[in-house]
Design a protein that fits this description.
By secondary structure, this protein is an alpha+beta fold. It has eight helices and four strands; from the N terminus they run ααβαββαααβαα.
């Protein structure tokens, strides 16, 4: 080995091993300095990324107008979305449904029709699924199964009952009561059947008296 070191390096064995030891020591010193400076920062970044999310909060039955408050614009509030009247907490997917995300326009709404049609049009951001075809309804069902398996249900959307002419139920009730109050007055003004029958009975009585005479 000594002869090989001398032949290939031109150094004596003692000099060769000294140079090798110094090189290794220099390497460990330099790598330790750079490694210690970058290590803690990397761990701190990872600790921020895995910060746990707050547990889902049950909101109960709310209106569509109240649901709009949970569209992600307020970071202190959960991020909610509804499908077929069922509200789910999608806070864990804020990168998709939060502000700036590809599906941000669905947040804070019941966008069942838009999901069924895979549409991003404003007129489709509604819970009305009437007139959809079988393939669209099947697609909506797939979305619902996905949300049921991945997210927590936290409430339902309260439906507002309207009559066909667009007025409220209370207005329809008041109109019906007003009609019932006017009905007796209309009956009082109708012609009586009794005066019509009296002349006939009088004529029959006169004929009977003449025959008797």
């Amino acid at each position: 080995l000594k002869e090989a070191i001398t032949a290939y390096t031109g150094l004596s064995p003692a000099t060769f091993f000294t140079v090798l030891a110094v090189s290794l020591a220099f390497y460990y010193v330099v790598s330790g300095l750079f490694g210690s400076s970058s290590g803690p920062t990397h761990h701190q970044e990872r600790s921020v990324e895995v910060e746990p999310l707050p547990p889902p909060v049950q909101v109960g039955e709310i209106t569509e107008e109240e649901l709009k408050q949970y569209d992600g614009s307020d970071p202190k509030k959960p991020l909610l979305m509804a499908i077929k009247g069922q509200i789910y907490d999608v806070t864990q997917s804020r990168m998709f449904y939060g502000p700036g995300g590809p599906y941000a326009l669905f947040a804070g709404k019941d966008a069942s029709r838009a999901l069924a049609k895979m549409s991003f049009e404003e007129q489709d951001l509604t819970s009305d699924i009437s007139g959809l075809g079988p393939f669209e309804l099947e697609a909506l069902q797939d979305w619902e199964y996905k949300f049921m398996g991945k997210y927590t249900k936290v409430g339902t959307v309260k439906k507002e009952v309207l009559v066909t002419d667009g007025s409220s139920t209370a207005e329809a009730t008041e109109a019906a009561e007003a009609t019932n109050r006017e009905a007796p007055n209309a009956g009082d003004n109708a012609p009586s059947e009794k005066p019509v029958g009296e002349p006939v009975e009088t004529a029959k009585t006169d004929d009977a008296e003449k025959k008797h005479e």
